[in-house]
Amino acid sequence: MANYIPATSIQATSVFNGAFADILTYNTPILNLKEKSIGYWGEKADWPLDFTMMDDTAAFTAEVALDDTAPRNLQIASFQVSPTKLMQEVKQATGQEFRLHRLSGLDDFAQFIRKQRADYPAGEYELYAKWQQGQYMYPMFTTRHTQVANERYNDLTWTTSLDFIKSFVN
User: Fold this and answer.
1) How far apart are CA 60 and CA 76, in angstroms?
2) How large is the average pLDDT for residues 36-50?
3) pLDDT tens, residue by residue, 123-158
4) Is residue 157 part of a domain?
5) Neighbours of 9 (CB within 10 A)
């Protein structure tokens, strides 16, 4: 696709939206309401993670579809929040203390994912194999948006991390 589109008359724009914010509601290691914990990998407690609401992604993508001047690639994020900031906002929303903790190093995490995948070859034929959860989270701590285009369309309102957290913690 990367080579095909430029060779055609098709005007295309890819919208990179980071992780869908809903992942924060699933009691993952990043935010676990049951265990009152917030986890991170590597030395990334202050690493901004890119999250986007599905509705925000849809609204932005609709604007892109009508924009004849949209560039080939655009990055968006409803909010960028580090594990440290997430801990502060969860406390603000709930009044409760959450434990911020390092889960492991990034190299150890990558090795764990590879081992999980090798130990469970049947997962290659499953829609959501367990090891894929790690593969989804790993790049959140190694890659992030550097040029967010949220301001490209003036009539869009982006969900904030605090507003999103408040929507599901109470």
Assistant:
1) 8
2) 98
3) 999 998 989 999 999 999 999 999 999 999 999 999
4) no
5) 5
Are residues 110 and 138 in contact, defined by beta-carbon separation less than 8 angstroms?
yes
Q: What is the CATH number of the domain that holds 115?
A: 3.90.25
Residues in the chain, overall count:
170
- Report the number of distinct structural domains present in the chain: 1
pLDDT confidence band for 95 (50 / 70 / 90): very high
Which residue blocks in the chain are alpha helix, DSSP H?
A: 54-65, 83-94, 106-119, 130-137, 161-169
End-to-end CA distance of the chain: 44
- Nearest CA to 82 among 125, 115, 42? 42
Contact 83, 76 (CB under 8 A): no
Q: Are 44 and 5 in contact (CB under 8 A)?
A: no
CA distance 49 to 138: 11
Give the domain extent around 10. Answer: 5-152
Structure token digits, residue 38: 């917030």
Asked whether residue 74 is assigned to any structural domain, the reply reads yes
Are 144 and 47 in contact by the 8 Å Cβ rule? The answer is yes
Cβ burial, residue 30 (10 Å; 0-12/13-18/19+): buried
Instruction: Please provide the average confidence, as pLDDT, over all residues in the chain.
Output: 95
Cβ neighbours for 155, distance < 8 A, ≥ 6 positions apart: none
